[in-house]
Specification:
The complex is a heterodimer of chains A (234) and B (443). By secondary structure, chain A is of the alpha/beta class. Chain A has 3 helices and 11 strands. By secondary structure, chain B is α/β, with parallel strands linked by helices. The chains are: A alpha/beta (234), B alpha/beta (443).
């Protein structure tokens, strides 16, 4: 990562508020990179950062790291707690470990990459952007997904994509089950090539093939035909 | 109701015309019924079960039309950099752009601004017209996260984390496709015309142990500038209030089962939650138990119709009342104009609960341009402001009559209960007993 300056913060010596204020000030001052030492899985490190900056977390982070943010890139050299990248608008977050429940919730855009696995209800309410997972994903990942893309190289739990409106979920491993209102569709050649190219860019080992899940639109309109899908909702 | 006998017949109490109609409608639709407004139950304990006992000789009243009677409330005082100051103990409740038309949003914003109170975004994001027309705007942070941005959070005057609502506690929102216009769909990132249903719980936290972390995130996002509240529907209210208070908020909002909605499963309106009058007593007691009654403001909604209801809420422990349906009625809801359009929907003014259809004859709960045009925002704002003024004067009327120069000095001892149930729920003494225990225990 090139840049004209790097600011190093020791989060063990600062309050959460001081860390966030320091990151915001650094971004306003045009500093390219903030390196955060000793995050120690504390919550809310990197909230509402809305000027361009690159964040490097040297360890595990707690809930809501890099959340409610825009124009931010981040790398997390550890694992992430709940809600990594919550509501990201534009930017890119790479988690080198695993991410807990609700990774990348309600993204408005940007990309969240988790090289390990993610917990249940990940990319929930996704509004745009994408979640890319090198490992597996827990149950109800993609629940209420509205737009965007989820790529899971490993296995998934049950009810993937339940009640999704739009968007696409690609799964390389075994799918526990798909949720209500979903269907499998074929993947076109260029679409598959783009998926593999994306994984290569993030140095994630690609599976041999993907299955694609999207909305069958049976839950778009509230009529009696939907009972067949409603009765099995988790 | 076509075909129902015109004159009273020997209707069954169990199989009433309404019950029969409901079963037949479900048989047609294959799903539960949906409608707007609020529960229509007539058997709920209500604010009418309480009366004020103003000053006589044992207390001296204030001059009703002359002496000062303070109405101001400040939320977050000493806790955030920019507390929310309300000139009156009233706020306009959260009603989304989508549920309401843009002209309704403009009108409510202008009325609230005139009266020095706030309005609220509801679920659907912050419409620029609403922000432009509302000097004080509460931004709701909901499970759907529709339209949520940190930029809009910073523009808000308070953030309200919504965990439920009185009309349908425990259930997410509904907005039928007729109201999901191109603009509503764009703001919510949804397909145009879809029947939208929203989640009932937040996507990225679960339960009371996580709530303090979420509150910290929101406070960080707004840089501790503005107050943060949490809203629930009144159900297990005593415990909920304690869990919210423990999370470190500036205000707690709840509405009772009389709370309004633009669309809800009908059966849920009538069979979930507890009445507002019962909930206030429980909520205020919880805050007193924790020693936080003065620090955390209590904002109460659900079926509040006038200054008497509001004054009784305050006397029971509320700091502010939320009004939604009453504000819409002041705006023109149920107004007997364009009556043929009410009839076309199979209803009439005063009976209408067809907000969910998007065909509102008076331009309030619709997204159809021709209907929206029927609502003049300036005229509507004046009507709502007039109502808010009248309601404020009514609240002051009771406070002065009880000898109080601050409306917030009203308390339970300024009232008496007309029913045993109201007395037992609220702790307000029963009329006619003068504080004695019931006679059957004395003699």
């Amino acid at each position: 990562m090139s840049g004209k300056a790097i600011l190093t913060l020791d989060s063990n010596k600062l309050s959460v508020h001081e860390v966030n204020l320091a990151i915001r000030k650094a971004a306003k001052d045009g500093i390219k990179t903030v390196e955060l030492l000793n995050p120690m899985a504390r919550h809310n490190l990197g909230v509402a950062i809305t000027d361009p900056i690159h964040l490097v977390y040297k360890g595990d982070v707690g809930y809501y790291a890099v959340s409610l943010s825009d124009q931010v890139s981040a790398e997390i050299h550890g694992s992430a707690g709940w809600g990594i990248g919550d509501n990201l608008i534009r930017g890119e977050i790479v988690v080198h470990g695993n991410a807990a429940t609700a990774a990348a919730p309600s993204l408005r855009g940007g990309t969240v990459v988790v090289k390990g696995s993610v917990g249940p209800r990940s990319a929930i309410g996704l509004k745009s952007g994408e979640l890319i997972v090198g490992g597996g994903a827990g149950y109800m990942t993609g629940f209420f997904m509205q737009k965007g893309r989820i790529v899971i190289c490993g296995d998934t739990g049950d009810a993937i994509g339940d009640s999704m409106y739009q968007g696409a979920i690609y799964v390389g491993g075994r799918i526990g089950s798909v949720g209500s209102g979903c269907r499998f569709v074929d993947i076109a050649g260029p679409e598959r090539d783009e998926l593999f190219a994306t994984l290569e860019r993030y140095k994630i080992k690609a599976p041999k093939a993907f299955q694609k899940v999207e909305s069958d639109r049976s839950l778009w309109h509230f009529d009696k035909k939907e009972f067949e899908v409603w009765k099995d909702v988790l | 109701m076509e075909g129902r006998p015109l004159k009273d017949a020997n209707f069954s109490g169990i199989w009433s015309p309404e019950t029969i109609e409901a079963i037949q409608e479900k048989a047609d639709l294959g799903r539960y019924q949906i409608r707007g407004q609020a529960t229509k139950r007539r058997d709920l304990p209500s604010f009418d079960d309480l009366v004020f006992v103003p000053a006589g000789l044992s207390r001296m009243p204030l001059e009703g039309y002359r002496e000062r009677c303070d109405t101001k409330v400040t939320i977050g005082e000493g806790r955030v950099k920019r507390p929310l100051v309300l000139d009156r103990p009233i706020m306009i409740a959260g009603m989304s752009f989508g549920a309401l038309s843009v002209n309704a949003k403009r009108a409510l914003g202008r009325a609230a601004t005139k009266c020095g109170i706030s309005t609220c975004t509801g679920d659907g994001g912050m419409h620029p017209e609403e922000r432009a027309n509302s000097a004080k705007l509460v931004y709701q942070y909901l499970p759907s996260r529709y339209g949520l941005t940190p930029y809009d959070m910073r523009k808000a005057d308070m953030i309200e984390v919504v965990c439920g609502q009185g009309a349908k506690p425990g259930t997410g929102g509904v907005l039928l496709g007729t109201k999901v216009s191109a603009e509503v769909a764009r703001m919510r990132d949804l397909p145009e015309g879809v029947d939208q249903r929203t989640p009932s719980r937040h996507p990225d936290w679960m339960g009371a142990d996580d709530l303090p972390v979420k509150i910290q995130q929101i406070r960080e996002a707004v840089d501790y500038e503005v107050p943060v509240s949490v809203k629930v529907g009144a159900s297990r209210i005593a415990d909920d209030i304690k869990l919210i208070a423990r999370a470190g908020v500036d205000a707690i909002v709840f509405d009772g089962m009389e709370g309004g909605t633009a669309a809800s499963p009908t059966i849920q309106l009538d069979h979930t939650g507890i009445p507002t009058i019962a909930a206030i007593a429980e909520a205020a007691e919880s805050l007193r138990d924790m020693g936080l009654k003065e620090d955390i403001k209590l904002i109460v909604g659900g079926g509040i119709r006038n200054g008497a209801d509001a004054a009784k809420c305050i006397a029971l422990g509320a700091d502010v009342v939320y009004i939604g349906t009453a504000a819409l009625i002041a705006l023109g809801c149920h107004r007997p104009i364009h009556v043929e359009d009410y009839h076309r929907m199979g209803t009439t003014p005063y009976e209408c609960n067809h907000c969910h259809t998007g065909l509102c004859p008076v331009g309030i709960t619709t997204q159809y341009p021709k209907l929206i045009e029927r609502l003049d925002p300036d005229e509507g704002a004046e009507r709502v402001a007039n109502f808010l003024n009248a309601m404020t004067m009514e609240i002051q009327l009771f406070a002065r009559a009880c000898g109080k120069n601050r409306v917030h000095d009203l308390d339970g001892n300024d009232m008496r209960s007309l029913t045993i149930e109201a007395s037992m729920m609220t702790g307000v003494p029963m009329v006619g007993l003068n504080g004695r225990v019931p006679a059957w225990r004395t003699y």
